[in-house]
Structure formats: structure tokens, C-alpha cells
Amino acid sequence: MSTRTLIRGGLVVTAADEVHADVLIEDGRVAALAAHGSDAAAGWTADRTVDATDRYVIPGGVDAHTHMELPFGGTFASDTFETGTRAAAWGGTTTIVDFAVQTVGRTLREGLDTWYAKADGVCAIDYAFHMILSDVNEHTLKETDRLVQEGISSFKLFMAYPGVFYSDDGQILRAMQRSAENGGLIMTHAENGIAIDVLVEQALARGETDPRHHGEVRKALLEAEATHRAIQLARVAGAPLYVVHVSAQEAVAELAAARDMGLPVFGETCPQYLFLSTDNLAEPDFEGAKYVCSTPLRPREHQAALWRGLRTNDLQVVSTDHCPFCFVGQKDLGRGDFSKIPNGLPGVENRMDLLHQAVVDGHISRRRWIEIACATPARMFGLYPQKGTLAPGADADVVIYDPHATQVLSAETHHMNVDYSAYEGRTVTGRVETVLSRGEPVIDQRKYVGRAGHGVFVPRSTCQYLN
Questions:
Q1: What is the C-alpha to C-alpha distance for residues 24 and 42, in angstroms, rounded to an integer?
Q2: How far apart are CA 289 and CA 279, in angstroms?
Q3: Which has the closest alpha carbon to 331: 293, 290, 272?
Q4: Mind giving me the DSSP string for 201-259?
Q5: Structure confidence by residue, pLDDT tens digits, 12-29
Q6: Cα–Cα distance measured from residue 309 to residue 253, given in angstroms and rounded to the nearest whole number
Q7: Between 396 and which of 25, 158, 211, 268 could a Cys-Cys bridge form, CB atoms 3.0 to 4.6 Å apart?
Q8: How far, in Å, CA of 463 to CA of 237, rounded?
Q9: Residue 349 Cα to chain centre, angstroms
């Protein structure tokens, strides 16, 4: 049975354009766009018509950095693929790219199959995977060739967390050399983990155990140093590089310098670095633990450099690094020792709204909002134009967005499976009203009408900025 949906009267905003247009959806894809009131649009009929007057019609968000059910520090991220993808939909995100994890001593295939099993049949929206390489050796490097063919075309290496995910420079270089051959994209968590561990040990020995010390030991200079080192290793390997969750102005400067040289180096930041700061980490009564993530929140003065990087395209993507842990029962594992606080923040539901607030505040334009939240992540990770835009042939992942509604962000009203909000009490302008995933309603007029299992795995091509 062919089904047709017509979205009438809205302002269609993509990374390339803003136009008052009607959108015709057929069999899960965008069939056509035509100017509102035009003869072409007037002739369209549909099984379902959505009135988008005074609303934006935007592509569904692509969150290229999430961690559902991630094992970390003796516990697991509190959102499952079912709860996390439902919350993502509430926030106007219709595709996530999550991280499958290789266990040291095991194959990439085992790790990937574990993640396939976690996500299969439970997701409300579409999903794809990156692969975390925890054990770089001849066998696992061969496996990356096969994974690229399978649509897992990006691989994350950690310069942090010695003894857990850490890779040394030699392993990183080998992985980059392999990716230069097979078309994969290496992503790095750029912090000097060896040096940070020394500073952690020294801080704890001095009795500095509160959450704020987490930010103090993970120094901005050690993020910048690792970013610089990753860039030089990528240059030696002749490989592209994507640096995740950039938080410090010194690290932005390293990326900008590399890009000024014409190098294929890319950077991502996250809403927490744009809207939160070390002031949150310093909140009393252990409340600062809610804001422990790595890279850490920085002093407020770093925010200007991040916004500037987003405007100048030295930073290309805003993802969430969504990795929630409940305050009670998980974050409090680190009471008396900040190094034992599980690292991660909830945010998959808040990203599109916070970035719209940035439009309202004048940090970015409407089209740049869609570019950094939808189009560029889709292009970066081989999903465009199936995802990230509204054009004939694209998946009908569509958000009807009310730019005038205000809302107060709160754990009382969010849908993430976590007992606090990192943005508790913050008022933002703009709110998701209706969400379609491949033409099927997931959120309808602020009601959840989706279902577990609608979301499917989407294989990816290679980075589209390198073709």
C-alpha cells in the first residue's frame, strides 16, 4: 500500500536553503518539494496532511556520537537503545551513530555483533555504528577492511584511559595507515591520558577528591597536545582525522592551524562545552559529579572560541557524546574519589533545542544550525543525502519545529532514562512538535506514537568530504 503525507505551509530549512514550501512524502521518502501556493503544490493529494504554518520544516537531526548501554567504570550508561532512541526522537533527532566496542583480546566482529544484538528490534529511529578499537594489531587492522565494506566506516581510538581503551602512538599510526588504504575515518579522543593519570594520582594524594578536580587534572593543554600529536600522526600516515568532543580553545587552535594548511582534519564539539562550564563541576554537595565527562567542561572563556570555530567551520559538527549515568547509584560511585565517577552526560534529547537557542542568541544562523546538526554529520559519516537533508529521494526524516514555543529543560519532563538534567531549569525557545522517521510518525503533536523496532540499521559509505 502506497502512503502519501503532505506537509503544508512551513518554512523548509536545510543547510543550503530556506524556502516556504510544501513537502510531499511517498513510501517513506521525500517525493517532491514545491513553493507553497504554487500550481504544483495545489495539485498534490495525500492520505495525511500536516499543517506546518508558522513552523520550521527541517531534516531530522543526525547525532553522530552516542553511547547507549556503554560499559564504563563498573557500570553501564543508563539509556538502552530503546529508551535512548525514543528520547532522541522527542528531541528531533532521527538518526544516531553509536559506538560498538571491541574488548581487548577479542575480535572487532565479536564487539560489533554484541552491539547489533543490543540495538536490533528495539530502536525508535534509525541507527548506525562506529567501531572503538581497543586492541590494534595485525588481525584487527585486517578486520577494519571488512567493516568498511559492511558500512562501519569509522574507527575510534583513545589517547586517554590507559588500561581501558588506550592506544599508544604506534598503534594509532598503524590504524591511520590502514584507514588511508581502506577509506575509513579515524576518530580520536585527544587527551594525554598518561600525563593525566599522573596528575590524578597527585591530586588524590593531596586529598583533592571533589568533582571539580576532575576538570583541573584534565588540563586544556593536554587536550591541545594530544590534538596536535594526532594531527601530526595523521599527516605522517596520509590519513584524514576526526577529533571528537573538542572542548578547549587551545585544541580548536590546533585544528584551525591544520585546516589552514589544507589538511583533511575535522572537529566536533558538544552542547555541554557550549553551554556549561567548570562552574557546574564546582557545584557543592557532590552535585558537580553530574557534570563529569571527558574531555571535561572548561572555564567559561573557552566557549567563545568554540562558537567562533563553529562559525568559521574549524569545527564542523555538534554531537552529544550522550552517555548518561544516574546521579543516585552511578555518579555517586565516585564520592570521595573523583576518578571513580563514571564519565558522561545525558544530552541526546536536548541538542537540537539548545542549538536552536544558539540561533535565537545570534551565535549561528538557521542554516548553520541544520548544517552542524544534520547535514554535516550525515556527510562526514557517509549517510548523505539519505539522511541530513530534505530533497527528493531522501529518507522522509522530518521534524516540524515550533520556533516560538518556550520550554524549561528538566528531568521532570525529559524522556532520557536518567535522574537528572544537565540543563535543569534552563528556558529555551523552540520545541519539536512532530517527528517523522522514514515517513512514519514517531512524535505527533507532542505525543509519542512510535514503536520499538521501527528504527533500522543503516550501513554507511565513507566520509563524503574526502571524495
A1: 11
A2: 12
A3: 290
A4: HHHHHTT--STHHHHHHS-HHHHHHHHHHHHHHHHHHT--EEE-S---HHHHHHHHHHH
A5: 999 999 999 999 999 999
A6: 9
A7: 25
A8: 17
A9: 11
